[in-house]
């Protein structure tokens, strides 16, 4: 598999992030990068938006955010462009995001959380294989998953 890197979203790659596409049935599961980057601007003191890149080309997007009240990191809006799905790039992006969180860029926490729609079977499977488990909490139509980093 090609090497996947996370590159902070900046003026060189934000338009490529805006061009990412999902299958029509997937669009209900994740916010578009335009919305996510607006959130990143609002929460800029506690988050980092990333382009998921293969050979320097943006093929996906995700954002890491720190919640100072809960003292936990969250992964928001992971998406891989429809033409690159099914190749392990989502897993590679998640592993890179977890490595970034291990560097504790915003706070000294080992807790990582995310939310997922239970109907999104591919994402649920990915998170389960990465050792995330349900917390018992929900956010609208999504369940919260958590992992404590070692």
UniProtKB/TrEMBL annotation:
<feature type="domain" description="N-acetyltransferase">
    <location>
        <begin position="4"/>
        <end position="150"/>
    </location>
</feature>
<dbReference type="InterPro" id="IPR016181">
    <property type="entry name" value="Acyl_CoA_acyltransferase"/>
</dbReference>
<dbReference type="Pfam" id="PF00583">
    <property type="entry name" value="Acetyltransf_1"/>
</dbReference>
<protein>
    <submittedName>
        <fullName>GNAT family N-acetyltransferase</fullName>
    </submittedName>
</protein>
<dbReference type="InterPro" id="IPR000182">
    <property type="entry name" value="GNAT_dom"/>
</dbReference>
């Amino acid at each position: 598999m090609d090497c996947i890197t996370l590159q902070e979203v900046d003026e060189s790659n934000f338009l490529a992030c805006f061009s990412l596409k999902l299958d029509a049935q997937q669009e209900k599961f994740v916010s578009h990068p335009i919305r996510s980057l607006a959130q990143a601007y609002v929460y800029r003191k506690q988050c980092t938006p990333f382009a998921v890149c293969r050979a320097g080309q943006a093929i996906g997007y995700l954002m890491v955010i720190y919640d100072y009240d809960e003292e936990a990191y969250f992964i928001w809006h992971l998406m891989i462009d429809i033409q690159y799905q099914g190749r392990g790039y989502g897993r590679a992006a998640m592993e890179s995001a977890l490595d970034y969180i291990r560097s504790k860029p915003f706070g000294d926490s080992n807790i990582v959380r995310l939310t997922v729609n239970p109907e999104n079977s591919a994402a649920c499977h990915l998170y389960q294989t990465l050792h995330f488990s349900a917390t018992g909490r929900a956010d609208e139509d999504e369940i919260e998953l958590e992992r404590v980093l070692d």
